[in-house]
Amino acid sequence: MESYLLTEMTWPEVEAALKTVKLAIVPVGAHEQHGPHMNESCDAVLATEMAKHLAQRLHPLVLVTPTVNMGVSPHHLNFPGTISLRPETLLAVLRDMVVSLKRHGIDKVLFLNSHGGNQGTLGLACASFAQELEVDCYYAKTTASAKQAMKAHISSTLFGHSCEREVSEAYYLAPHLVRPERLVKGDIVHGGRWEGMRPGNPIQGFYRYEEMTRNGCIGDATQGSYEIGKAIVEEALDELGAAVRALLSDSTDPQPARERELAG
Amino acid sequence: MESYLLTEMTWPEVEAALKTVKLAIVPVGAHEQHGPHMNESCDAVLATEMAKHLAQRLHPLVLVTPTVNMGVSPHHLNFPGTISLRPETLLAVLRDMVVSLKRHGIDKVLFLNSHGGNQGTLGLACASFAQELEVDCYYAKTTASAKQAMKAHISSTLFGHSCEREVSEAYYLAPHLVRPERLVKGDIVHGGRWEGMRPGNPIQGFYRYEEMTRNGCIGDATQGSYEIGKAIVEEALDELGAAVRALLSDSTDPQPARERELAG
Amino acid sequence: MESYLLTEMTWPEVEAALKTVKLAIVPVGAHEQHGPHMNESCDAVLATEMAKHLAQRLHPLVLVTPTVNMGVSPHHLNFPGTISLRPETLLAVLRDMVVSLKRHGIDKVLFLNSHGGNQGTLGLACASFAQELEVDCYYAKTTASAKQAMKAHISSTLFGHSCEREVSEAYYLAPHLVRPERLVKGDIVHGGRWEGMRPGNPIQGFYRYEEMTRNGCIGDATQGSYEIGKAIVEEALDELGAAVRALLSDSTDPQPARERELAG
Amino acid sequence: MESYLLTEMTWPEVEAALKTVKLAIVPVGAHEQHGPHMNESCDAVLATEMAKHLAQRLHPLVLVTPTVNMGVSPHHLNFPGTISLRPETLLAVLRDMVVSLKRHGIDKVLFLNSHGGNQGTLGLACASFAQELEVDCYYAKTTASAKQAMKAHISSTLFGHSCEREVSEAYYLAPHLVRPERLVKGDIVHGGRWEGMRPGNPIQGFYRYEEMTRNGCIGDATQGSYEIGKAIVEEALDELGAAVRALLSDSTDPQPARERELAG
Amino acid sequence: MESYLLTEMTWPEVEAALKTVKLAIVPVGAHEQHGPHMNESCDAVLATEMAKHLAQRLHPLVLVTPTVNMGVSPHHLNFPGTISLRPETLLAVLRDMVVSLKRHGIDKVLFLNSHGGNQGTLGLACASFAQELEVDCYYAKTTASAKQAMKAHISSTLFGHSCEREVSEAYYLAPHLVRPERLVKGDIVHGGRWEGMRPGNPIQGFYRYEEMTRNGCIGDATQGSYEIGKAIVEEALDELGAAVRALLSDSTDPQPARERELAG
Amino acid sequence: MESYLLTEMTWPEVEAALKTVKLAIVPVGAHEQHGPHMNESCDAVLATEMAKHLAQRLHPLVLVTPTVNMGVSPHHLNFPGTISLRPETLLAVLRDMVVSLKRHGIDKVLFLNSHGGNQGTLGLACASFAQELEVDCYYAKTTASAKQAMKAHISSTLFGHSCEREVSEAYYLAPHLVRPERLVKGDIVHGGRWEGMRPGNPIQGFYRYEEMTRNGCIGDATQGSYEIGKAIVEEALDELGAAVRALLSDSTDPQPARERELAG
Does A80 contact D8 at a Cβ distance shorter than 8 Å? Predict the structure, then answer.
């Protein structure tokens, strides 16, 4: 299926594409340890692949930019090989990208993100760029919207990093990321400070990944499969595709300035 | 009940208190429109009051710092009176506070936050300060942990700003914030772009509050009451108090550096 | 008496007030040690109270914003409890406030400051914001203009921090700040480096407060009284009120661009 | 041939590799127009491929990090699709990468750069990081050292962007970057301001690429070939490999601090 | 008379001088309009000359660095030729200078400043560098301490810029700065906003120089003379010299850390 | 010969000059060790002198601004007396200067630079300011264009700092910089890491000057002479003068925006 991938286009091709393109998808990943059974580029590759698939579904309304292949990963820095950007740096990269895109006439951008540690920065980015650059920016976790498939196929109570979900997504989208012969469960550190800071607890905060897991994984990667990956990815693509189409049709109605009599 | 409130202490009193204090609570609020029936200082006042109550429960282990009385509120700027800090500014304020606290020997800090728009910045703050300043920082939404009381007493599907929850909290904690004679429901703009970006949707992003509500409120403030406020606040204080105590006892065990043989 | 206090208003009330308001008063304080007989919030509280009084005199031409309740206090950091912002941080907070105010149509701002350590930053703020934001910013030390009352009532040669002047102001404006039973004179360190850097000397510079005073006070707080406070505060309010009125009437005459033939 | 590519490794593999690795190669590219006959990812891909080849020659002394796949390209921004980072942003990305690498014990870094517009920033990066981070940083233009092959095979007087050299390198390293059916010569704008600013002129400065070439190319891409690419790339790899080996052997002799008697 | 001027020394000479030097004098000036009768480099030149004279008196305890020959002059920017640095820029320059000096073993620095518009920034610089760089920084207005000579010889009520004082200083220190044939009085704009903001008024703020004077001067330059300049400069040098000597002798007693029992 | 030197002009004179001036020359130097036989201000003085001479040739089309008398010299910091600015600081100074110049109507600027360590920063400055400030900025190494004179008169293979070239330039332009009685050859450290990073090598990077030369010189200063200096300087002035004239005449033809059909 066809799609607009900026990395694989010449400028005259981009010029032609810009006649229909209304939104740019920026894949945002990370470079960080993924336990003994996944490559450290996992998040960058999965974000790229998801963006390509989503772009096919939304062709010719969107184009995909180069991937932001490193992200905010300080919690993984004590595992060898992790490269982490500070949030300020990621913001600067995204700002420059959005400024460049706007120069080409694109004022809607979706940051398609595969790494939880980037979410806070992406939220700030969207708010800041709306103020500073007069653009509409959105962000989405790549497969977070596949709620039914997750419910059906994921049984670990603690999952989300190099687990059955992520391994399954990789089997479906980029199998070279997985070392099938090394798949192991997360080697969880029980009783740690991290347990009080997981989502849903009264208090959040920063902890290092080795406080939670000795091998850098959580969940049970041995339960991953191509089929689960397909279910998750396709449901997420359905959801994301519909959401982007809704946004693009909405935006044909320009937002009126707040009416002065609004509380009359 | 007794508590350590930095704003009401002299330096010899602080010096004495530091013998038992292990954590500082920084109330973080906002200055932003709260519809026609609440003062714009609502979030700053509620964060302050929650911090005072929490400090009483945790006395003499904690002290309360001055309140950060403005926050990240760009989505409210089109309503008269809102003052918004950029995320970078809020980060700078919090960093300086943490640096000052560390100088006094305090290396654990809880940002007790009443305003949703601050959460992303607080998450980044905790991660950054752990790297830069060798402190443990945490953050909590003031009453988000009162899940049972919320479930029992809040019936609006869309709530969270100048709604029955917030008005109830104010009736209990700071009734001068409420104008009982002006209470109205949120005047919601149906069919807007914002509906696709509420929590739980595939895509998040920035929208202005007037895109969602003509009068600046959501939910149904007319349903608020002192009793509901009491139920929410007290449950949240129970949860927060227990969570802080758990953190403080945990931390008596120093976190070992990641062991080199961890994947052996 | 009536006044516009942003913290106690709803947005429709602010919208109505903006029809007459020409200038915003930003109270700027500090959170720092004030010896054994005053609360550390002293400067933040006094700035707030002075702003309220000044707003009453200038009603309905001015409104009061939330207070900047921490300031630039590095010289006090070795006394327990002091929280200090870097000058860059204070500038960022003020800039964001002025940007927000300008969005609401206010392009004149008075920083009403109670803390000497903020003065340098406020001077830079006024110059920078005039360039960057096209606003007119002013700053004033809360009671510095009460020259006659000072002359009449203050006998200490070295005064200005938790002294008879400040205690008197607090007795009049916010008596809960004072611990009457603990009032002491400043315990001055004679012969120190600081003596060569007091105002009026050939050389200025930075010194820490403990170089000058062992108990964090200077002057003689035991000489303070409600009556002195009243004399100082009321004279200062007279002076400030007249000065603001003069500025506001001046500014009805727009400043012409420099005429090209000016030196002809 | 074997090599250490961080993107294709797990953390235990990185941990093992770090026993021999002495230097990290950071591929630095760009995303910018390359005329009608090359993909916009050209520089990012070529830098990556060169890094892989160099790592094979230097195995097991080096590892390759993720690629910096966007660079400083403001001069190309008027051609559709170009994404440009500000120099400050590129510096921030590189600094964060070096900080992360140093945490893993690597204190020598080579920025292997394929894009002329990045050279100035890389020079500053090396100088700054040496001061700030106590690391030794180096940078190299990917094939600039292939002087003999260039002399033998390149006849255009003006070349260096989407020309016979770059097309040849791509034929050899990543042929999918080239559109053989669209190859054209640079459509040069004669008599422009740019002519006075080419290397070797008395004055340098910034000009936009469209001032120099109407189609975004210079040189004569139609003269490119796999053989020329092979000659250039292999000579450059020989030169780079020898240079890195020399650096690594040098550095076994620690640099003594400047001797005090040096001018005796 | 001998002195250490860094601009006129070789590195072996500096190395030798550092055996006795305890403090660096940094001349800080400005480049800004000085009316029709003085060169725009006036402040830079006068600061340099004052530093040279002061260094002679304090030889061999001090050395003079290169001059900061531009300053913070936004209020003069509407007069042709003025070059103004932002306060942040001046701070950055001074910080880099102090860092360099500290590397050479000098940890006491006096900013000798001839331009009023720099004073606020210099105050912040001293406070910030003390925190960040563990140095003692001081600042002085070049001739402000010549109180008796000023009182005896200056009769204008409004003076301080290209007036009889400054012209006199130039006659004595650098007569080429003055155009004797063009000397004029300040052409003051009476009734302006600036009158309410002069020193001693209740309110300070930023105003542009052309609001106050049509020809860029204040005071009465025609009253200036070599003799007045000599009186002012020599008195100031006496005062500054004594003050620096006092600081340097003080500092032989290291400042003790605040004693814990200070309020006992 | 006449020229416009901003440091020696009054504002009415600048106003008059601006009627013909089209470009500002900013002399950019450094303050750094120049071995035992040249003053540390060498680069600042030579840049200033070159600018004056060039301005005479181009009168009345150009004016000369104050000199940037410190530069980016981290590689010299281990020699006593060197003062180094960070690249960010130099950029900030240049930006403020360009902003000020633009305010006076000058939108073309030439940074005339005598110090190699500044070149990278000047390249970034020109690119950044073109984007941010809508100005045309250029930079030139003061005498780099004197290729024939260099070829005829310089025999050292390694030269460029306090060598026969620089000493000769000083003999011609500012002989007080030289100590004829102390002239020595560079005391080169053979076999060092620096040899692999000199221009023309495959790899560049940062090294400290003492790694290369024990006395801070390279080349053979004893071979310098007034005549060589004259030959170099005059050839360079010829080249620079012609290049600036070409730029100024070019720019009378405004650059058209890129034509949309450019690749048709």
Answer: no
